[in-house]
Design brief:
The chain has 391 residues and is mainly beta. It has helices spanning 2-12, 22-42, 386-390, and strands at 47-48, 63-64, 67-68, 78-80, 83-87, 91-92, 95-96, 104-108, 113-119, 125-133, 141-146, 149-154, 165-172, 177-183, 196-205, 235-237, 252-255, 260-264, 275-278, 285-292, 298-307, 313-322, 325-334, 338-347, 352-359, 363-364, 370-371, 374-382. Bound molecules: 2-acetamido-2-deoxy-beta-D-glucopyranose (3 copies). Residues 1-43 form the signal peptide.
Length: 391
């Protein structure tokens, strides 16, 4: 419910004090009821999209070998261009193909795309999760569109040993009827070099709130993209343009092509709560949040650094930056889970201060999986809060 509050606060710019007036609360309740009714109409629920894992197969009559020939042949999807429907364990060139979810996946050839219509709640923020595996092409990326927003998801780095990674991409629904389109913009000499995709899910993102005196929102990373309950490899959060909405909002990933990994307590050691971020790309991907600060005011940043209990052993370290200050928090990992707290005190020099976390090194597990330190439970508090000064 606080989700709607948050959306409307931004939409109507209602000042905090006015929110307390009973008139406003009444109006708010009315709007909530209308919004709830709109939502219950037919908007999609969190989880797998209809035939999101491609287990419902196209009819044989609409295929030629692995190639899908009918535009509407794959149930719940529409295709354009060279699209293949592939089975787990199938030989593709010199690759033996595993599939992350179920037994089937789809390959997008040069300039091919796949589309599904979605019914959403207008104004809500959503995150899409899907799995992708790059094949022979080098600088691969996927263009993800939820009309009218378009974003790029770079998939050239392979993070897990299976070759499949789950990715997330977020947007704010500008219409209730939209199309989700995944497009392979690549043009490779070998048409069979396009990426494989599978397991599409969606989730409504709650609006992150600040807790107590913490100026950072979503400091525990509890609000983030959908993670399939039975997948054990987390979800990558890729870099995004400044005007895009982040799946880990208000945290964003600053990077050229690298991502960070969002991990769950069901499959990883998480310092606090149910979710955390594993920095798997060394200094090439920074986790960033910008907050309002008062120039001259002193602040204290605290955070947990640890290991995800995923066998990532060695000398890990996280460097945190804020204003002109920085701290390096070393963490000796046995890969079995654990964490410690680190802190940084600094004086703000601007009205906006960026809090930045990066991993200081690349770490790889023996099976080739990229890994790194986890960051969790970040807080930023003014050394003498303004409220106390007023008293
Ligand atoms: C199937 O594809 C092959 C190779 O591209 C082509 O030669 C053949 O004509 C196609 N068959 C049909 C029924 O379209
Ligand atoms: C996850 O569970 C669903 C059913 O709940 C199943 O269809 C799917 O194959 C499972 N995926 C994996 C990777 O085990
Ligand atoms: C998507 O792909 C096209 C190439 O087909 C490219 O020009 C464009 O910049 C890509 N990204 C976005 C955000 O549209």
């Amino acid at each position: 419910m606080h989700n709607y509050l948050c959306v409307m606060k931004q939409a109507l710019v209602v000042p905090e004090k006015m929110m307390q007036s009973s008139l406003c609360v009444g109006l708010l309740l009315l709007l909530l009821i209308v919004a709830a009714a709109a939502r219950s109409a037919s908007a999609i629920m969190d989880g797998l999209l209809p035939n999101g894992n491609f287990e419902e197969a196209p009819d044989k009559s609409q295929m030629n070998g692995t190639r899908v020939t009918g535009r509407y042949a794959i149930p719940h999807w529409e295709i354009s261009g060279f699209v293949e429907y592939v089975r787990s364990g199938q030989q593709l060139g010199d690759m033996l193909l595993p599939v992350p979810e179920g037994a089937y996946a789809v390959r997008l050839g040069n300039e091919a795309s796949i589309l599904q219509g979605l019914t959403l709640v207008r104004g809500e923020r959503y995150s899409v999760t899907f799995s992708a595996a790059r094949t022979c092409a080098q600088a691969e990326l996927l263009n993800v569109t939820v009309t009218p927003d378009v974003g790029e998801v770079p998939i050239q780095t392979v993070y897990t040993s299976s070759g499949w990674d789950s990715y997330s991409w977020a947007f704010r629904a500008k219409h209730s009827a939209v199309s989700l389109i995944v497009h392979n913009p690549g043009v490779s000499e070998d048409a069979a070099c396009g990426p494989l995709i599978d397991a599409f899910a969606i989730k409504i993102l709650q609006c992150p709130q600040s807790l107590n005196d913490n100026l950072l929102k979503n400091g525990g990373f509890e609000e983030g993209p959908y993670i399939f309950p039975n997948t054990s490899w987390g979800v990558m959060v890729p870099p995004m343009d400044e005007d895009d909405y982040s799946p880990l909002s208000p945290w964003t990933i600053l990077a050229d092509t690298k991502s960070v990994k969002y991990v769950d307590a069901a499959h990883y050691a998480v310092p606090g709560g149910a979710r955390a971020v594993e920095l798997v790309a060394g200094m090439e991907a920074a986790l960033v949040q910008e907050v309002s600060t008062v120039p001259g005011q002193s602040y204290r940043l605290e955070f947990s650094v640890g290991d995800a209990g995923d066998g990532c052993a060695g000398s890990l370290s996280v460097k945190a930056y804020a204003s002109h200050g920085s701290v390096t928090a070393p963490y000796e990992s046995h890969g079995t889970g654990g964490h410690s707290r680190a802190s940084l005190e600094f004086a703000a020099t601007e009205e906006r201060t960026r809090v930045v976390f990066v991993s200081m090194a690349y770490t790889t597990k023996p099976d080739g999986t990229l890994c790194g330190p986890v960051v969790d439970d970040a807080s930023l508090v003014a050394r003498h809060s303004r409220r106390r000064l007023l008293l």
